[in-house]
Amino acid sequence: MTDAALAVPARALALRLAWREMRGGVRGFGVFIACIALGVAAIAGVGSLAQGLVDGLAREGRAILGGDLAFTLIQREATADERAFLAAAGDVSVAATMRAMARTADGRATLVEVKAVDAAYPLIGAVAADPAAPLADLLAQHGEDFGAVADPALFARLDLEPGARITVGNAAIELRAALVAEPDKLAGGIGFGPRLLVSEQALRASGLLQPGSLVRWHYRVRLPPGAGEDAVAQVTAAAASRLPDAGWDIRTRSNATPQIERNVGRFSQYLTLVGLTALLVGGVGVANSAKHYLDRKRDVIATMKSLGATGTRVFAVYFMEIMMLAGVGVVIGLAVGAALPFALAGLLRPLVPLPFAPALHPGELGAALAYGLLTAAAFALWPLGRAHDVPVSALFRDEITPDRRLPRARYMVAAVLAALALTALAVVAAHDRRIAVIFVVAAAAVFVTLRLVAVVLMAVARRAPRPHSTMWRLAIANIHRPGALTPTVVLSLGLGLALLVTVLEIDANLRREFTAALPEKAPSFYFLDIQAAEAGRFDGFLRAQAPRASLERVPMLRGRMVAAGGRRAEDIKARPDAQWVLHSDRGITFTSEVPKGSRVVEGAWWGPDYAGPPLLSFEKKLAEGLGLKLGDDVTVNVLGRNITARIANMRTVDWESLGINFVMVFSPNAFAGAPAIDIATLTYPGGGGVAEETALLKAVGKAFPSVTAVRVKDALDAVGAIVSNLVLAIRAASSVTLVAAVLVLGGALAAGHRHRVYDAVVLKTLGATRRRLIGAYALEYLLIGLATVLFGVAAGSLAAWRVVADVMTLRFAWEGGPAIAAALVALAVTLVFGLIGTFAALGRKPAAVLRNL
User: Fold this and answer.
1) Count of C-beta atoms within a 10 Å radius of residue 260
2) Residue 651: phi, psi to the nearest 5?
3) Could you tell me the pLDDT band of residue 6, with boundaries at 50, 70 and 90?
4) Which phi and psi (to 5°) does residue 128 adopt?
């Protein structure tokens, strides 16, 4: 080197050489850049979308909630003292929500989500209707008819037009307009029926408000102008201190929709993990690209070393070049990810009724940047490190005998540190760190296992008997020869197929549970709001109308858990699968007998004549998730009273039966004298027919107008639609990883093209025919693919089993059709990709290649 060159600082010289190398062409790095860009775009786009939704929910908190605070009571109205407290805080609006049956004059009926509002509603925002008119006019009473605004789905379901009349309970309702926009719709959650907006007077006239009826009373409070978060916190604290036994669920404008925010966080975490999986799969492409790029640069590296370049200098040059190329992929990914929210904004607004305004989120983009660069470094350091100590002579010999030595310890340590940094980032940035840790451990286990599969496959091929067939002998030799594609093909194909089988098996099991298996064993109807005074007559009526069906009826109250095991509910650190028990109110019952579908597995059931302190039976798995044990006290607030009971036993529950099951079952004396209502199920053996169920629905609606009938098949259809959309979203998200796997597979096979050309030329020179060579290569890809497919199907099925059984708590059944179809597609992709490169290699003329050997 010249004196001037020696005077240049080492880093600057390495950077200059790396830049000159890049100017000479980066052929072979297309897959590298595409994989990095794909993973970074997925993470940046998902993070930006999720953050945009969270920001929108926070920004529109008052409008979503309908006020600065909302106080919700179940099965009872606020007392005079409670109303006085709320009125002292600010402007108050009252709304009551419940499920009921809407009936036409000719007997048609459907479930509706009734929302009865007072004159002050809405405190924030406005109701939009078609035709447009003031809400007070649309809901006003004209003669005996009360006005209503209904969801367009109700008009379609009952084949009605504006101006038509229906009956809800004992109230005559005129449908005066279609509901276009409801300002606080998100705060109410998801309903099973269309919205019916009526006045509070209409609900009281319906006769549906009976003691114990399943109605929620929402009291929205608008604080004086300029009230900040301190004022909101003061009202919340005062409510807890002055009215500790009210039992209301309090929400503020800063947590207007906690369930939606949790779901956005969970789904964004899933999508982020999918993007990270795509990056990890792409990392294999990074390692392959680095390895094969250095393989092509043997002459350049040999020249640099012969001129005095140290191994450290060689490593620095190519590491900088790799990271600059990774930077190109990261920049492309960041640009796509940042643009994604803007591109999808118009599509999301009609599909997702959430406040969303696209924006640039530096934190999310920065995390995606770190993910991309760390992935590139973690996967490139190892192959780049091997070039440090390879002598010039070995570099020239590598054409025939590749060097298998490990890189120096410092490069291995650097690779491990980069991997640990990537792991730490994935865990720290996760919505649920437990799931992130499981993902990291599972990803490491899958990588190690796939590597072992490749090693075992190569060892078996190496020790296999030599077949007489030349094609078979050549195919088997190619599996274990130096520079074989086996490890890369097994890794990329195995990861992609395992993920595909996981998604397909989850999809098949969800569809089976919600569209096939459940209706066969589930009740045909749920009946709600059966008054105790009418229970006997109701039983007799159903037995006369449906003599072949079985009836089950139990009392029910609604209550919120406020303390358990000596801890306040908000202080309980519950497992993720048990947290829902603490959210909002739960259905509870009391009985002297073990409920159907339950089995006592720990402790003892109370006797039929028990009259001691209140006892409680808790579902075992959920009790464990809440950290509860036998003998612990649990306090629930029911109808404004705190009731404390001791856990006497634990039960397992058959939730899949869709029968009447409860997390908490109390001894009968716990709620003596409480105005409980009954709920019932009616089950036809083998399922009821449409005509039979429709006739029963009409008869019940006519004889018991205050009873709400829920046809289970309709509810399952609604759930099935939600499940289908969820599975569709999972499929779309998982396709990112599948695309990365295909890219890596194609890149690996393309990287081996030079070896294929060399082999093909030598073998053709020795007399091998094109047909024989194609057959040998096809057998090689088929054997590698078969071994990988077996692992991919097994690993994907195992992962789906754990997700369905542990996370979704459903029964898992292996579906062979989707798994076999995915396996055949994977085999076909491997063969097609492999043979495309093979045909190109076989087309090369021997003379031109042999002159350059």
Assistant:
1) 18
2) -125, 155
3) very low
4) -105, 130
Using CA atoms, how far residue 178 sits from 95, 122, 154, 161, 393, in Å, is: 19, 17, 9, 9, 83
Q: Which residue has the tokens 């693919």?
A: 785
Q: How high is the pLDDT of residue 538?
A: 92
What is d(CA 805, CA 131) in angstroms, rounded to the nearest whole number? 49
Name the pLDDT band for 174 (thresholds 50, 70, 90). Answer: very high
- 714: amino acid identity, one letter: D
At position 781, the amino acid (one-letter code) is: Y
**One-letter amino acid for residue 317 of the chain:** V
Distance CA 852, CA 31 (A): 27
Question: What is the structure's pLDDT at 521?
Answer: 61
Q: Which residues share a beta bridge with 98?
A: 114
Q: Which two tokens stand for residue 397?
A: 């010999």
Instruction: Calculate the alpha carbon distances from 775 to 149, 457, 520, 769, 838 in Å.
Output: 71, 20, 51, 10, 10
Kindly give, in sequence order, each residue whose CB lies less than 8 Å from that of residue 300, ignoring residues fewer than 6 positions away: 21
CA nearest to 298, candidates 411, 381, 379, 391: 391
For 809, the token pair is 């708590």
461 three-state secondary structure: helix
Instruction: Judge contact between 283 and 373, C-beta under 8 A.
Output: no
Q: Which two tokens stand for residue 654?
A: 């058959």
- The CA angle 542-545-551, to the nearest 5 degrees, is 35
pTM beyond 0.85, yes or no: no
Query: Hunting for tokens 């890219």 — which residue is that?
Result: 743
Q: Using one digit for the tens of pLDDT, what is the confidence trace for 822-846?
A: 888 888 877 777 777 666 656 556 6
**To which H or E segment does residue 306 belong?**
helix 298-306
For residues 758 and 483, the answer to whether their CB atoms sit within 8 Å is: no
Q: Residue 772 in contact with residue 471, Cβ under 8 Å?
A: yes
Of 747 and 805, the one with more pLDDT: 805
Reported confidence tier of residue 1, pLDDT bands at 50, 70, 90: very low
**Cα 748 from Cα 760, distance rounded (Å):** 18
Give the integer Cα–Cα distance in Å for 728 and 144.
Answer: 48
- Give the mean pLDDT of 778-801: 85
Nearest-5° Cα angle at 622, 616 to 627:
85
**Residue 415 near residue 381, CB atoms below 8 Å:** yes
Interior CA angle at 228 toward 226 and 230, to 5°?
Answer: 140
Residues 6+ apart with CB under 8 A from 379: 283, 284, 286, 287, 290
Query: Which of 127-136, 444-453, 628-637 is predicted with the least confidence, judged by mean pLDDT?
Result: 444-453
Q: Is the pLDDT of residue 742 over 90?
A: no
What is the sign, positive or negative, of the torsion defined by CA atoms of 587, 588, 594, 599?
Answer: positive
